[in-house]
Amino acid sequence: MKKNLVVLTGPTAVGKTELSIKLAKKLNAEIISADSIQVYKYMDVGSAKISNDEMCGIRHYLIDELEPDEEFNIFRFKEMALTYMEEIYKKGKIPLIVGGTGFYIQSIIYDIQFNIEKGDKQSYRHELEEKAKIYGNKFVHDMLKKIDSDSAEQIHPNNLKRVIRALEYYNETGRKFSKHNAEQRNNSSPYNFRYFVLNDDRERLYERINKRVDIMIDNGLEDEVRMLLNRGYSADLVSMQGIGYKEMVSYISGNTDFNDAVELIKKNTRNFAKRQLTWFRREKEVDFIDYRDCDYDKKIMLTKMLDLCKEKNII
Description:
Helix content: 40-55%
Mean pLDDT: 93
CATH topology of the largest domain: Rossmann fold
CATH superfamily of the largest domain: P-loop containing nucleotide triphosphate hydrolases
Order of helices and strands: EHEHEHEHHHHHHEHHHHEH
Number of helices: 14
Number of domains: 2
Number of strands: 6
Radius of gyration: 20 Å
Strand order of the largest sheet: 3-2-4-1-5-6
């Protein structure tokens, strides 16, 4: 019998946190974060990290677990998430994966495999990293575009790790990474799952994003970034490439005006939300829960999700 699993995701600032707590209480669930920045300590403001008060006693995993200079990628996420899922199952509870990183979620639901061992990966990876340093991320992204345009479309140029991974895969296998992912998405899931995607009117979502960035600024995003730099965390770290952090580093370094940095955070976050929705729309077996369809009533949204869980005997 397949084990039960529930996912609650959607674009940034759509309102996942509040609904995830309500859903977790109804499901007798514990939450595993599928967020690439909230996993890091000290990075609270810029990641809009859930606070202890907001958790309302619901156990959360993959929050505040790593130092900002530790590596966190799809491989490590999957390994840690599966370990925590087993802990949750042993308690007789349901894992609820919450967060906006679609690739992370997909890796669990369809048990996507990444193990490619042949070839001298280290030297090729180092070569690509050096090219990015000399010529910029876009140069390496353009390399990917030439051999795998579908992957290039899905991966932002600033997500250098994923760009390099796609190039490595092609170098090692002669096959496109996008084709590999498409094949893996056709895997049958080892779980009895519901995959909820929250959505809203684009203009309303963008307003929420702009407001969230203003709140981050008021809550001390600049001070948080200065603190990280003063602790010795390099601006080149993957964690520091997160939206909000890299733009503020640019301001602190004197490369950009403060107001321009804030506007760029808003713009980059809006673009990120757009890419997230594009990803989720391509996924199979998802249930979109739209604020507009529920008259912006969170009780109706929660009831709809619970009814869909009942259809699959999750509760």
